[in-house]
Each structure stands twice: as C-alpha cells, then as structure tokens.
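Why should sequence recovery work at all? Because a backbone constrains its sequence more than one might expect. Tight turns favour small or flexible residues, buried strands favour hydrophobic ones, and helices have their own preferences. The token representation captures these environments compactly. In the example below, the structure is given first.
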C-alpha cells in the first residue's frame, strides 16, 4: 500500500459516489480533448498551428531549433518531458510529399534532437514516429510532424497505469530553454 493511502475510499467532493479510486485532476488536457488549437480545415490558411508557430518567437512558440526546411518544437501535450516534434515549414500532409531537402533535414534534425535530449536529460531511449492520417492517430493530420519522445528506464510507473495520469516534472518553457541550450548543430 502507498504511504498516505488507506484501504477505505476517501470521499472527494464532486466525483460522485466514493469508490476505491483517487482522482488526480489534469484540466489542461481538456483543451486537447476539445480540439483547442486544431485547424478548421486541411489548408495552410485554416488555422494550422504548425504553419503559425514559425512566425512567433522561439520562446513563445516553444521552438527549440530552426532549420532551413524544418523546425523542432515542443509538443504542447507531451507524453514525457522533452517530447518534441520535427515539422516541415511547408504545409504537407504525407511523408511522400516531402522533397529531398526536406526529407534530409527532417532526418538530420531528428538525430540532433536525440543528441540534445541525451545531453539535457540523459534519455535512455526514444519513441520516434509519425502518425499519417487521422485514422492512424494524427492529431493534426493535414501538416506532417514527426514525434521524438525521450524515454527512461522505469518512466512508466503506477500513475499512467492506475491513475490514467501522466506526471511531467518540468514546465514547457523550462524544457525548451534546457534543450535549446543543449542542442549541438
């Protein structure tokens, strides 16, 4: 049994009948669930955040690195601290739509992201991938983006398994600064 937990359900106001579950509230996730910052359509002018982010400052847009064809940006709804995405500036939906220069730079910035994440956080491994199309899980299917998620031995604990809650120990602005400082060109 965990320290501070009893075998009796604790009454929490506003959650209905007491049961064996403790609730950890993550209200910031509601924005993602409700589709905040999602485009209204498939075009670049339809409110695509990946098209808008490069026009902001690095700090405001959570941009870690800018290349000539792609950029690296922190995920607003990360799976782990340091979860970033490598995104082409050009509004394309499919990996096969990238030209040779975009493809090469996407691969190079992904390698650089791994190096920076190892230097900044001691990441033990990575999940790297793209979800192509809404049916494959792409949150913003109209603009290609590759996820780079750092992983550590034991980073999956009882919180996501039992509490369906992910605990992130660092604010996005702090993560952005640490990674930007650790990035090696």
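From this structural description, the recovered sequence reads:
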């Amino acid at each position: 049994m965990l320290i501070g937990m009893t075998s009796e359900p604790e009454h929490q106001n506003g959650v209905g009948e007491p049961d064996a579950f403790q609730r950890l509230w993550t209200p910031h996730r509601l924005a993602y669930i409700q589709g905040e910052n999602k485009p209204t359509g498939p075009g670049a002018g339809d409110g695509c955040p990946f098209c808008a982010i490069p026009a902001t400052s690095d700090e405001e847009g959570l941009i870690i690195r800018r290349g000539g064809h792609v950029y690296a940006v922190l995920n607003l709804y990360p799976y782990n601290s340091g979860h970033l995405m490598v995104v082409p500036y050009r509004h394309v939906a499919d990996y096969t739509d990238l030209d040779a220069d975009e493809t090469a730079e996407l691969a190079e910035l992904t390698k650089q992201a791994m190096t920076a994440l190892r230097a900044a956080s001691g990441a033990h491994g990575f999940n790297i991938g793209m979800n192509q199309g809404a049916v494959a899980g792409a949150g913003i299917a109209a603009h290609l983006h590759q996820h780079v998620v750092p992983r550590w031995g034991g980073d999956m604990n009882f919180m996501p398994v039992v509490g369906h809650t992910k605990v992130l120990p660092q604010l996005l602005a702090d993560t952005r600064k640490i990674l930007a400082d650790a990035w090696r060109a």
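A few observations help interpret the result. The chain has a mean pLDDT of 82.
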